[in-house]
Design goal:
Layout (H helix, E strand, L loop, with lengths): L5 H10 L1 H4 L4 E8 L4 H13 L8 H12 L4 E8 L4 H8 L10 E6 L2 H7 L12 H13 L11 H11 L3 H5 L1
Parallel strand pairs: 1-2, 2-3
Helix pairs in contact: 3-4, 7-8
Pfam families: NB-ARC
GO molecular function, one term: ADP binding
GO biological process, one term: defense response
Length: 174
């Protein structure tokens, strides 16, 4: 589902203070429709090494990344994976095998197929927000308040906007 808050939830976890001290290394990669295992691997490698990498050979990139992740506890977020090809995903995940217990890879996806292929725990499905929560979010963004008490003339318009957004926080924020 588009716009239910998958990326926002992953960002909250990734940036949480208690997460900061738990992991030795962290990386965030926006994957999206254009799935390129070389680009994604290179981005992870640069994020955990804090160095620019001009390699474009997948094998060399994966060996280098695998060495950096070995005996480390890491958190890697792969945001918005669309690619449902099992082989591509397994190639992407292969350098993660040597991490310490407690290492985590968080994947956000709209695809139940992707979630099933890469998941080692059940997927966490986000649902649309309730009408009341949406109305509160809209008033927070539009008026800096949690309700229309100070602007009752805008409430009907706000309720119509909330209906059209169908419980999607991204639509409401926009």
């Amino acid at each position: 589902e588009f716009g239910v808050g998958k990326t926002t939830l992953a960002q909250l976890v990734y940036n949480d203070v208690s997460v900061e001290g738990f992991f030795d290394l962290k990386a965030w990669v926006s994957v999206s429709e254009e799935f390129d295992v070389v680009r994604v691997t290179k981005t992870i490698l640069q994020s955990v090494s804090f160095e620019f990498c001009d390699l474009n050979d997948l094998n060399l990139l994966q060996v280098k990344l695998s060495q950096l992740l070995k005996r480390k506890r890491f958190l890697i977020v792969l945001d918005d994976i669309w690619n449902e090809k099992y082989e591509d995903l397994m190639i992407l995940f292969s350098p993660f095998q040597g991490g310490y217990t407690g290492s985590k890879v968080i994947v956000t996806t709209r695809s139940q197929t992707v979630a099933s292929m890469v998941g080692t725990v059940p997927a966490y499905h986000l649902n649309e927000m309730s009408f009341a929560s949406c109305l509160s979010l809209l008033t927070q963004h539009a008026l800096g308040r949690t309700n229309f008490d100070d602007h009752p003339n805008l409430k009907v318009v706000g309720e119509e906007i909330v209906k059209r957004c169908k419980g999607l926080p991204l639509a409401l924020s926009t």
